[in-house]
Amino acid sequence: MLAAAESLLRLRPGLILRSAPGAAREATRWPVAPIWPRHLPRCSSGGVPSESRPQSPAAGKVHRVPAEHKPSQFDKKILLWTGRFKAMEDIPPRIPPEMIDAARNKARVKACYIMIGLTIIACFAVIASAKRAVERHESLTSWNLAKKAKWREEAALAAQAKAK
User: Which residues, at least 6 apart from 145, have a Cβ–Cβ distance to it below 8 Å?
Assistant: First the structure.
């Protein structure tokens, strides 16, 4: 059933290869609309979207400035901390946004490693203090019992003072 059917093969927009069973293959040009999402701009080889192309050649090309982000003081500190620059004076007044993003990501990872290290140190500190408490025969249960006994004693003294 499939062998008897004619097949079409799209090579690129506008060029379709048509072959019949047992016949020689021939490439024919058919008017085919290219498939392109409507919400995405189409770009020419010059990189300018087709909807916003200059109408006259005298209008000139649109150039994107590669360094268009002015770093704040915090951004400068991040750039220094991540090792991108050696001193504050070395940082240019405008830098590419990709450099800031890379520095922020590196700083984020460093901060996470520092927090992981502090968490591990805190765990060992809690373990050490718990071992010392066991040597002194202290526990949360004994602390709670002593605290409640103290509260009962204070309540009894307050009741005696009120009765007088």
Answer: none
Which tokens go with 111? 């901060």
Round to whole Å and give the CA distance between 6 and 158.
102
Q: What are the boundaries of each domain within the chain? A: 73-138
Model confidence over 136-148: pLDDT tens digits?
988 889 889 999 9
SS3 string, 16-44, reads EEEECCCCCCEEEECCCCCCCCCCCCCEC
Beta bridge partners of 43: 49
Q: Which helix (H) or strand (E) holds 111?
A: helix 97-135
DSSP label of 69:
B
pLDDT tens figures, 68-85: 889 999 999 999 999 999
Label the pairing between strands 26-29 and 15-19: antiparallel
Handedness of CA 56, 58, 63, 69 (dihedral sign): negative
Length of the chain: 164
Q: What is the pTM of this model?
A: 0.47
Which pair of structure tokens corresponds to residue 86? 């050696």
